[in-house]
Each structure stands twice: as C-alpha cells, then as structure tokens.
Amino acid sequence: MHILSLPAVRRVRTASLAAALLAATLAGCSSVPTHGPSTSNAATALATQTSRAYHGRFAVRYVDQNGQTRNAYGNFDWQEQGDTVTLQLLNPLGQTLAIVTSSPSAATLELPNRQPVTADNVSSLMQSTLGFALPVEGLRYWLKPSPAPTSHAKTIVDPQQDTQLKEIDQDGWTIQYLAYADAPGTGVKRVNLTRYQPPLDIKLVLDR
User: Fold this and answer.
1) CATH of the domain at 202
2) 94-105, pLDDT tens digit by residue?
3) Mean pLDDT, residues 139-164 taken together
4) Residue 83 sits in which domain range?
C-alpha cells in the first residue's frame, strides 16, 4: 500500500478540481446554442430594403366601353412592401376614389361604401371596376426608374445626362421621363405612360 505525502495529495486534489472545472466549462459551452440571424429577422430586413412609398398627382385619359373618351385625375399614394403594392387614388379634394392592393396571389379593389372586390389579376380588376387599368406591376420598376425584368425592353438614355433614362418601351407601353428631382438620389419627378391599344394615357407627378 502506497501512502501519498501531503504535497502529493494536494497536487492530486488540484488536478481533479481543474479537470472537473474544465468538464463543466465544456458542458456549458455545448449546451448554449449559437445564435445567428433568424429567418424572421432576415425576412424583416429584406422587406425593409424593398419598401418604397410615393405620393403625387395623376391624370388619366382613357376610352370607356362605349368608345367615349374619359378623364380621371387627382392624387395618389403608393405603398410598396416587398411584392405587395397598395395604391390609393383620391380626388382633388382628398376623398378616396379607390384603394387597390396587388400581391402575387391576388388583387383587391375597394370603392367607397362598397364591399371589396377580389380577382387574380390587378389589371382586369381595375379595368372592370374603374374603366381603366394602371400598369401596377410595371410601375414597380418604371418608377425606380428601370425596366421590368419580366420581359424584353428598349431603353433610351438621356443624351444630356447619361446616368438617367429618357424612355422605356416595354409590354406595349412607352414610358417617358420628363423630369427628375433636383436632390440627389430622389429619382423621378414627372413621367408619362402611353399605351396605344387599347388607348390609355397616364401622367404622373411625384411630389415625394
């Protein structure tokens, strides 16, 4: 039988204590999960990056189902969050004419004192309800301004300012940029959109 001296006993106790502390530390580290960016946080950040808002005035000239030329004008508020666009049209007195909500899954149109109407396509919904359809899906890109990535487009650069677009021709529409805001990075100020068949003329002034 071997009898340890007092210093040796102390060394054994110290080594045992150190081993126990090391094991506890490693166990604690393995039990704590690593936190990275959560899916919800990443989605929120992405939605924030793709959110846009515009405020301005509109004037629309269109031909109704009886072949008569009609005009509509007023103010608009555009709210874009990810793939969803909410467009509110108001008369010159600030009263709501219609609220249009467009998403990849459905489109909804609300008129004052009426039940909301829902359809798969925002253009057909506006056409059947208002008598004209704004190109909401195209405007998501044309107001940036840039061509929509979904189809071929012809672009013309402003010869006096080669960093700005002067015109886009896409999906039967001619989009003409008449003025840009003076402040750097604030984008389009005035834009005209024309479609020849069926005839539709839209003028937008963005007040930001």
Assistant:
1) 2.50.20.10
2) 999 999 999 988
3) 93
4) 51-206
